[in-house]
Each structure stands twice: as structure tokens, then as C-alpha cells.
């Protein structure tokens, strides 16, 4: 069942809450609805009863939390979260407090529009608004007192922290999407509407800002390694001059044609330049490539080919861009730096797959079949959830690659993932594969699927011998990312 929206919560509050009478709930519900929509509030204090006005001041006090308003104006999903918390908060106060919050009115009608902070106005008017608002908030705090005031302060701090974390996460994830070539602007609307909702389900990512920063840093270094690898390729290109031997020069006249070749114009065309009245005609014909010119022909002598010794290499199999299947070891021994590196390498492979429009799916595995998670990384343009799932992978399980390979090879039997490239990323501490797994692996290889492995261990595990290629990644070497940038080229099959 889908989560209730803030509008559902507001409607429920208006119909069933014990706060005040129906008129009080309706005006407060309308106020919260405008907040949920991100509109500038045009309500006046005189629109509220004494009871409803007291609760409005409580809502305003929370909305005035430093940094909160800017964030909820930018992000619809964060605003949705804040409004739900506000509804819950005022309902709890109404159920806990026997008497309604006192409302402090002014002789003049006072309103603080949503999005306008106290003191924003210029001159004495701004100072008066700030002073009045401060007095109202002070009366609200006195009214709340004790436990309810602590709850109010705790909610302000919680919402402020969530807004700050959400903003930082957005900035870092936008950089990750840029590394993948997706561009955050393309997904901005999706982020605004679903970003906080998705992030709130993945607490580790929302809280672990340092993990994201390290990943962005590693990806930056990988991007530099890619550029270095491209420079090396360019340096290897050599240009050899080619000279033809002509048997005939420009003296081989074959006729007259229209062109803009001034060196071969007919005398009649050149004569147009001798008269001011016809000079423009010459320029017009020149621009239009319609000057009458001699047409010359040059012939070259084709090189002689020894038909008896020349051979041509042909391919009997169609070489296509197959899908990519990632199998990532999430055992506890991968925790820390290996986790960051493995995610960086996954990003590099994901980027290559997206650039070449190749389907890409990831299996993370632990010690048992129950610890296998499947994430479809082919549709990152259409939503952030697969990316968040990938970033939130937990590296604390046991190690057994066999069940994951079973599932991955079963995926290869589907039409969408036939002729796949499978890449296993592990520290190499894996049990021996069962005979049934090896049998399925060789059968997949016979159908043009390829198996690669990237390891972090000191020595390659003997269990990986059936794989087509095993790459050893040495984090201690400065050029290790450059080496991987070169190795990944092997995944790029010809179209």
C-alpha cells in the first residue's frame, strides 16, 4: 500500500482530530494545505479563532526554524515530510493539553506570510513585525512549557537536521549522477518529488555524508584516470605520409564546367572584371560556383596487389554489445576502503553500460541465498531509487559467491540478458564453487557470455580460474585506477 500523502494526513486531521471544533480544524487544515503546496500564505490572524490561532503560532514557530524554509521551498518531498510532522505534532498537543494554547492578538491585524522571516521588511515596520512575532513565540513557548516545549524543540532540531542532510545528500548525489553522464538537471523534477521519500528509507545513506564524499572523490580520480588513458591512446597514434604517383597532370583537359576555380576560368569570365557594370555579375557567379572554367583530370596509378599472398580476416560470429551483470561481494571483509573502491569500479562499469545503452543489473551477495539483492541499474534516468539502493548496499555479510552466480547465470538465460558480460568484484576470499555452478558457467560461455573478475586480494583465488579474465586491483598503487580504466575497454564489444 502506498504511503499516505500530506494531503491525506491533513484531511484525516480535519475529519477526525479532537482539536477544537470543525471550524478550527478546517482553517488549520487549509493553512497546512497551502504550506504543503509551497504557496505564499495570505492568511490573517483575524481569520482564526483564539484556539486555532494558538496552534497556528506553534506551526509558524516550527516553520521559522533556521534553514528549514529554504529547503522545503526547493524540495516538494521534504515539504511533504515536514507537513506530516506538523500534523502529528499539533494533534499530539491537542490530545495532551486540556486547554487550548492562548492566542495573543494585536490591535492591528498581523500576519507573517510563509517564506517571509521576521524583520525582512525595511524601516520601523520590519522592527515592529520582528518584535511582535518574538512576543507571540515567547507566549507560545510559555504556554507549552515542560514536556511539550521539549517536544517542540526536538521537532525543530529534527526537521532542521533532516533538511541539512537532505541538501548535502542532494549535492553529492547530483555529482555522482554527473559522473554517470546522466546530469542532475535531467532528474531534478524526480528528485524534488521523491528525493526525501527515497532517502528516508535508506537511513545509512542519509546519515553517512563522509561515505558519499569519499565516493565522489574516488570517482573524480577515476575520471582523471580515464582522461590520462585517452591521452596515452592519442600519443600512440602515428601518422604516415602517403604519396601518389600521377601519370597525368593538370594538362589532361576533358572539357568545360561550372565552378569557382579562379586558376582555370575562361578568358570571357575574367573579362567581366574589366567593367564596373559586369563586375557584380562576376562576383555573383563566383559565390554560386557558376564561373565557366576548364575541367581537368588527374589519374593515379593504383598499387599492384599480389593476389596470391593477400588475406582478409573475416568474422563468422556477430559481435554485439551485450548486457552487463555485476556481482558484488558485500562480506564484512569488504567493509571500509574495499567498499569504496568496489562502488567506484561499479560506477565506472555502470557508466560504460549507460553510454553504450547496454542493460545493467547488479547482484550483491553475502553468505546465503537470502542475502542476495538484485538492483536494476538500467533505468537510472527514470528514477533515483536504484541509485540510492546501490549506494546504500551494506557490506557486513558473509561470503559465498556460488548462489549469486547461480542467479546471475539464470538471468543470462533470459532474452534481455543473453550474451552478457558478468563482472564479479570480490576480495577473493570465496569458497570453492559447486560443480553445478561451474557447469552452468561453461554452458553460458559456450553461448558467448563472458566472465570477468576484479579482486583485491594478494593472490588470485584458484576458484576464479574458469573466468575469462581476472584483474587484480592494488589500491596501494597510484596508477591502479588508470589500469582499471584501460581494462574496462575490454568490456566494450564492437557494435
TrEMBL record:
InterPro entries: VWF_A, vWFA_dom_sf
Compositional bias annotation for Low complexity: 119-132
Region (Disordered): 94-132
Superkingdom of source: Bacteria
Domain VWFA: 321-492
Gene3D superfamilies the UniProt entry points to: von Willebrand factor, type A domain
Protein name per Swiss-Prot or TrEMBL: VWA domain-containing protein
Amino acid at each position: 500500500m502506498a504511503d499516505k500523502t500530506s494531503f491525506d494526513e491533513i484531511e484525516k486531521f480535519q475529519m477526525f482530530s479532537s482539536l477544537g471544533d470543525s471550524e478550527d480544524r478546517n482553517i488549520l487544515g487549509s493553512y497546512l494545505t497551502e504550506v504543503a503546496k509551497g504557496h505564499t500564505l495570505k492568511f490573517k490572524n483575524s481569520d482564526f479563532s483564539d484556539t486555532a490561532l494558538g496552534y497556528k503560532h506553534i506551526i509558524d514557530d516550527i516553520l521559522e526554524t533556521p534553514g528549514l524554509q529554504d529547503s522545503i521551498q526547493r524540495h516538494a518531498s521534504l515539504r511533504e515530510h515536514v507537513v506530516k510532522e506538523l500534523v502529528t505534532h499539533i494533534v499530539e498537543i491537542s490530545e495532551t493539553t486540556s486547554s487550548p494554547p492562548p492566542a495573543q492578538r494585536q490591535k492591528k491585524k498581523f500576519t507573517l506570510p510563509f517564506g517571509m522571516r521576521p524583520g525582512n521588511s525595511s524601516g520601523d515596520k520590519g522592527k515592529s513585525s520582528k518584535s511582535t512575532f518574538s512576543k507571540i513565540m515567547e507566549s507560545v513557548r510559555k504556554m507549552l512549557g515542560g514536556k511539550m516545549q521539549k517536544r517542540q524543540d526536538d521537532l525543530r532540531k529534527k526537521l532542521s537536521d533532516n533538511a541539512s542532510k537532505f541538501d548535502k545528500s542532494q549535492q553529492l548525489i547530483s555529482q555522482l549522477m554527473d559522473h554517470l553522464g546522466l546530469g542532475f538537471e535531467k532528474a531534478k523534477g524526480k528528485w524534488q518529488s521523491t528525493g526525501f521519500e527515497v532517502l528516508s528509507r535508506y537511513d545509512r545513506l542519509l546519515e553517512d555524508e563522509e561515505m558519499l564524499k569519499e565516493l565522489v572523490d574516488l570517482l573524480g580520480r577515476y575520471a582523471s584516470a580515464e582522461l590520462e588513458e585517452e591521452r596515452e591512446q592519442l600519443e600512440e597514434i602515428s601518422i604516415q605520409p602517403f604519396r601518389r604517383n600521377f601519370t597525368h597532370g593538370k594538362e589532361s583537359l576533358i572539357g568545360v564546367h561550372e565552378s569557382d576555380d579562379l586558376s582555370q576560368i575562361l578568358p570571357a569570365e575574367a573579362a567581366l572584371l574589366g567593367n564596373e557594370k559586369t563586375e557584380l555579375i562576376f562576383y555573383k557567379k563566383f559565390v554560386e560556383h557558376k564561373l565557366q572554367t576548364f575541367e581537368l583530370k588527374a589519374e593515379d596509378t593504383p598499387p599492384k596487389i599480389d593476389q596470391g599472398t593477400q588475406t582478409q580476416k573475416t568474422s563468422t560470429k556477430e559481435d554485439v554489445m551485450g548486457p552487463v551483470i555485476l556481482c558484488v561481494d558485500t562480506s564484512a571483509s569488504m567493509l571500509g576502503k574495499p567498499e569504496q573502491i568496489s562502488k567506484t569500479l561499479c560506477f565506472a562499469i555502470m557508466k560504460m553500460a549507460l553510454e553504450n545503452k547496454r542493460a545493467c543489473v547488479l547482484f550483491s551477495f553475502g553468505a546465503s541465498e537470502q542475502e542476495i539483492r538484485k538492483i536494476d541499474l538500467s533505468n537510472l534516468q527514470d528514477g533515483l531509487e536504484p541509485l540510492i539502493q546501490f549506494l546504500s548496499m551494506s557490506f557486513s555479510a558473509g561470503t559465498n559467491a556460488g548462489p549469486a552466480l547461480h542467479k546471475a547465470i539464470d538471468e543470462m538465460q533470459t532474452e534481455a540478458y543473453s550474451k552478457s558480460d558478468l563482472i564479479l568484484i570480490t576480495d577473493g576470499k570465496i569458497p570453492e564453487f559447486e560443480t553445478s555452478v561451474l557447469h552452468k558457467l561453461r554452458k553460458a560461455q559456450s553461448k558467448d557470455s563472458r566472465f570477468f573478475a576484479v579482486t583485491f586480494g594478494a593472490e588470485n583465488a584458484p576458484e576464479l580460474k574458469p573466468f575469462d579474465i581476472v584483474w587484480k586491483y592494488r589500491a596501494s598503487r597510484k596508477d591502479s585506477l588508470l589500469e582499471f580504466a584501460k581494462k574496462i575497454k575490454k568490456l566494450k564489444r564492437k557494435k
